[in-house]
Design a protein that fits this description.
Elements (H helix, E strand, L loop, with lengths): L2 H16 L4 H12 L6 H18 L1 H17 L5 H27 L6 H22 L13 H13 L7 H11 L4 H29 L7 H28 L3 H21 L3
Helix pairs in contact: 1-2, 1-3, 1-10, 2-6, 3-9, 3-10, 4-5, 5-7, 5-9, 6-8, 6-11, 7-8, 8-9, 9-10
Length: about 280
Amino acid sequence: MSLVEALVLGILQGFTEFLPISSSAHLVLVPWWLGWERPPLLFEVTVHLGTTAALISYFWDDWMYLIQAGFQILRHRAIQSADEKVLFLIFISTIPGVIGGVLLEPYFENELSDPSFTAITLYITATLLIGSEWYTGAALGNKTMQDMTLWDSVFIGIAQAVAIIPGVSRSGSTISAGLVRSLNRESAARFSFLMATPVILGAGVKQLLDVLMGEQVKLDGGVLGVGFISSVVVGYAAIAFLLNFVRRQKLYVFAAYCILFATLSLVGIGIRDGF
C-alpha cells in the first residue's frame, strides 16, 4: 500500500464518516474506480481510530459534562439535570444500533466489498435525506436535545441501526430522523454526532481486537501515520463543516450527490460487466 493510497483513503474516511454520504459506500466504490485493492484491516482500523479521535476531540467539552452527569446519576440514582437527561437519551439511542449490529452485521458482511450493492443502497441515503426535508417542509423544529423524549431517542436509535446497511449513511439517517422528530437543525446534528461516539468507538475496538487475533498484513509505519493523521484532520474539519452547514442549509445537496455518485458507479459497473 502506497503513501498516496493512504492519504487518499484517510481523507476519504475523514470526510465520509461524518458527512451524510456514507463512508462504507465510498470506501468500496472509490478504490473500485481507482483500481485499488481493499486496504488491509490494520489500515481500516487505523483510519477508523483517526475519525474516532476527531469526534472525541471536537466534542471533548460536551463529553466532559456528560461524564460528570453520569457520575451524578450514579450518586443520586436519579436523573435530575438536563445533562443527565441527554446522557440517558444517548444511552437509549445506542441500544437499537447494538442489537442491529449483532443481528445484521453478519448478514451484510459479504456485501461490504460489493460495489453494486453499495451503489444501490446509496439511493436509500438520498431518500432519507430528501424525505426528512420534505416531511418537515417550511416548518422549523424547535426541540433541543434537552427537550427530547424517550421515544425521540428510540426513533433516532432505530435510524442508526438502519445505517448498518452498507451504503446507508449513519449521520444522514440519524440527522434525518432528528428532523422528523421536530428537533431544530443544530440539535439534530449534534445529537447525531454524540450518539455516534460510543458506537464508532465500540466498532473501532472490535476491529482492533480482530487485528490482534488474526494474521494481518504488515504495513509501513509511514502508511499508517499518513492514514491516521489525514483522517483526524479531515474528520475534524468535516464535523465543523456539517454543523455549520446544517444550521443554515437543507440536506438536498448531499442527496443529489449520493444519487449522482450511485448512478455513475452503477453505469461504470455495468460497462465493466458488459451489462
